[in-house]
Amino acid sequence: KQEVTQIPAALSVPEGENLVLNCSFTDSAIYNLQWFRQDPGKGLTSLLLIQSSQREQTSGRLNASLDKSSGRSTLYIAASQPGDSATYLCALYSGNTGKLIFGQGTTLQVKP
Amino acid sequence: GAGVSQSPRYKVAKRGQDVALRCDPISGHVSLFWYQQALGQGPEFLTYFQNEAQLDKSGLPSDRFFAERPEGSVSTLKIQRTQQEDSAVYLCASSPERAGGPVTDTQYFGPGTRLTVL
Question: Which candidate, B24, B33, B20, places its Cα nearest to that of B91?
C-alpha cells in the first residue's frame, strides 16, 4: 500500500528565507506527483504538477523535483513571504482512476 | 471562469441524521472525485466518477456512504445515520478528461463542506 510522508509537519521561518519541504513515498511505481496549497477553511490550490516523464517543475518562486527511484519529492520556496503561510500537501496519482494519495501536509508560517 | 462549488459550506447534524452534500464541478469536466479530510490530516479518497459512471468507490468507509452523479454533472454525497467519526471536511474535485494513466490532468478542488456530527 502506497504511503506518503511529509516532513516536517510544521515549519516557522523569517521572511526572506529559502526553504525546502520534503515528501517521501513508499512505492516508486507512481505516475505523477502534485503539490497543493491549502489555506484555512478553503479548498486546495494546485501549485505544481510533475508528470511521470519529468523530474522537476518551476513556477515563479516555487520549484518541485521528483526522484521516483528514491521515493522523494521536494518543494523549494525561494525568498519566502508572509503570504506563503499555508499548509502544503503533496499527493501522488495512483491507479487506473487517477485518485490522489495525500501526505499529511506541512504547515508553514512565514513571519514578517 | 467558475470553479468547483460545494454546498452547504457548513453542516451540523445530530448523530443518526442523514445528510446530503452537493458538488457542482467545472462545466464539461469528465472526472469527479470526492475526498474526506479529517482535522490535521491530508485528504483521503472516497470515490471517483467518469461522467455518470462510478468507476471507483473503494474509499467509501461504510455502506452508510453513497454517492451519485446521475447526469454526469452535479454530484451528491449522501451519508446515512451519521456518526461522530463522520465529522470532517468533504472535498470535491473535478478534472477535464478521464483520469488514470501516465498523463494526468490537474484536479480542481472546491472549498469543501465541513460536516460536524454532534
Answer: B33
pLDDT at residue A42 tops 90: no
Locate B101 and state its grid cell: 494513466
Cα-to-chain-centroid distance, residue B118: 21
Sheet holding B5-7, edge to edge: B5-7, B19-24, B75-79, B65-68
**CB count in 10 Å sphere of residue A7:** 12
Higher-confidence residue of B32 and A28: namely B32
Q: Are A67 and A50 contacting, i.e. CB atoms less than 8 angstroms apart?
A: no
- Residue B108 cell numbers, joined: 480542481
A61 in contact with B at a CB cutoff of 8 Å? no
* Interface contact flag, B109 A99, Cβ < 8 Å: no
Q: Which chain B residues are Cβ-neighbours of A34 within 8 angstroms? A: 106-107
Q: Where are the beta strands (DSSP E) in B42-87?
A: 44-50, 53-56, 65-68, 75-79
Inter-chain touch A43–B110, beta carbons under 8 Å: yes
- How far is the C-alpha of B12 from the C-alpha of B116, rounded, in Å? 5
